[in-house]
TrEMBL record:
Organism whose genome encodes this protein: Staphylococcus microti
Ranges for region G5: 151-153
UniProt region (G4), positions on chain: 122-125
Topology versus the membrane: Peripheral membrane protein
Residue ranges of the region described as G2: 39-43
Listed name of the protein: GTPase Era
């Protein structure tokens, strides 16, 4: 009989390449929010995949970019810190885009990593198979990879094959987490992320990057209902107006979409109370960033 395999695998890549989409697919639940906006993920999100022969803990990380404020600095630290004490690295890139400076920067970092690095070309549903080989050669001219695997995280193409290859690289090890545990984040954090996701989906331009969501209270209000009170922070008065919308229409829409997801997460009816507040330049205020739950690991 084969021994049980387990390990920690970090996913590194530029913003928007599909890291969170991949994690949600292999976990089979939505634990990391996704959007078509760059820099969606701000924290390290741990997703636990448990199978009969292996347990793999995937670390979804913020996309690597040049930080423009303290929150960005924090996000980059989070991503880079995941490169130590892991068993493998997934370097995820867009199969339908050319290699960029961000990718080169990441590969410079990865050259010093001791564990196997996999080049994962995501979004192959968007490219013709003939276009893949030249892309792969470009990446190979920078560094060598343990394996190179094209996938589509969105549609699931080749994901099982990738997982089998990945498993073959992992050490024999224990099942770290019990069956059924899929994430390491408390519900409160996931709830605030679901609200943030709905804002990302319904707003554009500067709003997605300027918002922070803090769940202040979650109480079982009635036997079948949870009351969630959350504050959406923006950086300027004008942004507050945009998030609330004409006659409160936008905020209502955000609240409705978020409530449905939260009800699904909690398995209970939810009363969602949303407030919008201005906190000038919050992304540069260390104490506020901490208060919002962006706290560095010791
Ligand atoms: N066509 C296609 N789109 C994909 C695929 N994987 C992800 N996407 C889309 O790419 C966008 C970004 O996906 P995310 O999973 O949020 O990307 P991310 O790498 O986590 O982004 P950050 O958190 O900002 O670093 C979303 O609109 C996804 O639906 C794929 O395999 N094919
Ligand atoms: Mg993400």
């Amino acid at each position: 009989m084969n021994e049980y395999k387990s390990g920690f695998v970090t996913i590194i890549g530029r913003p928007n390449v599909g890291k969170s989409t991949f994690v949600n697919r292999v976990i089979g639940h939505k634990i990391a929010i996704m959007s078509d906006k760059a820099q969606t993920t701000r924290n390290k999100i741990q997703g636990v995949m448990t199978q009969d022969d292996a347990q793999i803990i995937f670390l979804d990380t913020p996309g690597i970019h040049k930080p423009k404020h303290k929150l960005g600095d924090y996000m980059m630290k989070v991503a880079k810190n995941t490169l130590s004490e892991i068993d493998a690295v997934m370097f995820m890139v867009n199969a339908n885009e050319d290699i960029g400076r961000g990718d080169q920067y990441i590969m410079e970092m990865l050259k010093t990593v001791k564990t196997p690095v996999f080049l994962v070309l995501n979004k192959i549903d968007l490219v013709h198979p003939d276009e893949l080989m030249p892309k792969i050669e470009q990446y190979q001219s920078y560094m060598s990879f343990a394996e190179i695997i094209p996938i589509s995280a969105l549609e699931g193409h080749n994901v099982d094959h990738f997982l089998n290859v990945l498993k073959s690289y992992l050490p024999e090890g224990p099942q770290y987490y019990p069956d059924g545990q899929i994430s390491d984040h408390p519900e409160q954090f996931v709830v605030s992320e679901l609200i943030r996701e709905k804002i990302l989906q319904t707003t554009s331009e500067e709003i997605p990057h300027s918002i922070g969501v803090n769940v202040e209270r979650m109480v079982q209000e009635a036997e079948d209902r949870v009351r969630v009170e959350a504050v959406i922070y923006v950086e300027r008065d004008s942004q507050k107006g945009i998030v609330i919308g004409k006659g409160g229409k936008k905020l209502k829409e955000i609240g409705k979409r978020a409530r449905l997801d939260i009800e699904y997460l909690l398995g209970s009816k939810v009363y969602l109370d949303l407030w919008v507040k201005v906190q000038k330049d919050w992304r540069n205020k260390s104490h506020f960033i901490k208060q919002m739950g962006y706290v560095e690991d010791e």
